[in-house]
Structures are given as C-alpha cells and as structure tokens.
Amino acid sequence: xxQNNPAKALRAFKVGFIKxxxxxxxxxxxxxxxxxxxxxxxxxxVIAFLQERLAPVMRVFSxxxxxxxxxxxxxxxxxxxxxxxxxxFNFGAAQITTIAMIILCFHSIPLEAAVGRQIGFNPAKxxxxxxxxxxxxxxxxxxxxxxxxxxxxxxPTALAPSGSAAETLSVFAWAPGDPGANPWIVxxxxxxxxxxxxxxxxxxxxxxxxxxxxxxLAYKLVERFTAKLGWLRRILGISKDALLPLLIGLxxxxxxxxxxxxxxxxxxxxxxxxxxxxxxxxxxCHGIIETSILFAVAGGNVFFICIVRLAxxxxxxxxxxxxxxxxx
Length: 328
Fold this sequence. Notes:
Shape: globular
Helix content: over 70%
Largest sheet: none
Number of helices: 15
Order of helices and strands: HHHHHHHHHHHHHHH
Radius of gyration: 21 Å
Strand content: under 5%
C-alpha cells in the first residue's frame, strides 16, 4: 500500500489538473461573453437610466438616493464593482452595511444565472428568490443598522443619484475628432484587462481546487469529513455528497461551488432536492470570507455582513428543506 501511495497521489494530481482545466474552460465559455456585455453596458446610458429610476426606491431601505448607483452596479457586476461605485459617495457605516447585505443577496445576476443554468439551477426561479431575499434582507438590516448607529447615517439624504454617473464616457455620445478620450479604446482596454483577469483568477482557483477534490476523493477523506458534519446536513436537509460543493460555495463563491458541484455530480448524481437546497443556501450566502473582509474594509459592519448573513441562509434553507413542494 505504501508503495502505491506515490502513484495514487500522482494520478490524483493529473486527473485533478485536467479536470480543473476542462471545468474552468466550461465556466469561462459562460462567464466571458456576459462579462464583455456588462462592460459594454457601462459605457452606454442604460445603467445610468436604471440608477435614476430606482433612486426613490432606496427610501424603503433607509438609504439615500445615491445608493441606487452601487446597487444597480452590483446587479450587473461583482462585489468589487460595488465597492468601487460606493467610493465616490460619503456613505456611513449603516448605509455601507445595508448596501452590502442587499448586494450580497442580489449581485452578478446575468453571470451567476448563466453559471447556475450550467449545473441545473432554474435561472428565473433563483433570480426571483434572490430578488425577494435582497428586499427582505435590505429592509431588515436597514432598520437594524439604523437602531445600532442611532439612525444618524441611515436616513435618506437625496432622491436622485449624483456623482460621476453622468460624466461616464459613452460610446454613443462620442464622435470622431472629439478631443476627449475615445470610449471605444478605453472600453476595449478594460475588456482585455478584465478578460485576462477573469481567466487568470479562475485558473488560479479552479485548477488547485479540482486537484484538492481529487485527493480528497482518492484517499476517501470526503467521507470522513462529511461524517463529522452530519448535524449540519440534517439541519440543511441535504445528502452527504451535497455537503462539499455547498461548503466550497460558502467559502469561495457560486462559481467555484458550481465547478465542485459539476465534478461531484459526475461521480455521484445528486437529487433535485439537493440541487434546490444548495441553490437556496448559496444564493443567500456564498463567498463569505472574501466578501466579509471586502465590505468590512470599505466601512461596513462585519457582524451583519458575516454572521447575520450566514444565519439568514441557514434559516431559509432549514425552512425550505421542510417544505417538500419547494424542495422538489
């Protein structure tokens, strides 16, 4: 057995490496086109139009009108885009926390819906679910942070977005000979840099992740690990094979959880119930470490962004697991 260990380890590494490349390639085929479309839209009046129309709605969450800008931005992009959008405004801690909690329920919708479709999630169903979760969470956290911070920085201060949105370069407003920056060149440069970043970021995580999963499976460590978390599986109502992709998604995000789910499902096909409950949990709470740190650094309350978010996901999944029709 000891003599076979090096050969077994080498085989696990090779298989994991190849699967990492193939899984990453499949995800990239979905991610890159949507990423390019999103970048293009930021250079058109579409997002600015949505920001203006949605500004009055921000009052429901005890937010100023300017909060519509990072929230709408988050619909099309990831958390980093939201933090960048917030940086142009003087939001308080309560407002940043509320924006973060809304966005973490409802962000990167075109991209994550497309990724979800690849693994069997119903895009329309889960988009509606995330939208409802974002509203409920936003109202609840807006009220709670208002109490926590005395309401001083959570009251609406404006009804219309302001800042640099109107000054953004537009591919429709620019004409040849204009002395200003050529938005097509700027946009093309951003698309190129962003595409390379997406490819490198995905390869940097998904390939090592597939190798680790292969080692876990080869040495039967998954069985030992999941056996110790039987209490969590019972709370969430999922099978032992569904636990690993759920935990990967919780720690690293939907994209990496999807890659893990693809691989696990090939080996041991999961039930529709497992897929549904994984979706319910991950679309309420995923990538918890990175996002909590990101918004905490931006000025949000890490307790709400991490602990409250996790508690909401556990509660919603617990309830869903006990509703047979919902979990079918």
